GNAT family N-acetyltransferase (Shewanella polaris), 173 residues
Amino acid sequence: MTDNHPVNATNANMHPSVIRELLAQDNAALAAVIREVSAEYGLTPDKGFSVADTTLDCLSEVYQAEGSQYWVIEYQGKVVGGAGIAPLAENDGVCELQKMYFARTIRGKGMAKAITRQCIEFAQQQGYQSMYLETTAILVEALGLYEKLGFIHCEHLGETGHDACEIAMIKTL
């Protein structure tokens, strides 16, 4: 865990949002967002997407590990999305951007960029040299964001368990 403080973000199209560290009491709301967004895009548990992860209901425990952190976006008192990073197994100096999901209420408001920057900053502070991610072509908006933030397409690294994610990307930090 880090000592990062909540980040307030506003935009002309929305009320203030807060990016803050995931807490245990956020687990159920975050899992619900991930399941809802996954269903919306047809990312079903039987196909190897992160919605199938057995740890989905206890993510606050997962991100207690060293070199890991997860942030949520709170909007109008509700958890409406989030993203995190963790070390990529068997790849020294590489972290993985993980479980980046956002409810419809905050999409297109700049929050994905803000939370990804939070993840990048943390990764740099932790001494990672690269940030890796896996995604799918179905998530067109996410692909555009990753490219704008300097991620480039690469070969798959390691065994993440998300074999349905056909696109791998990496960014030098």
Summary: The two ends are 20 Å apart (CA to CA). The chain is about 25% helix and 30% strand.
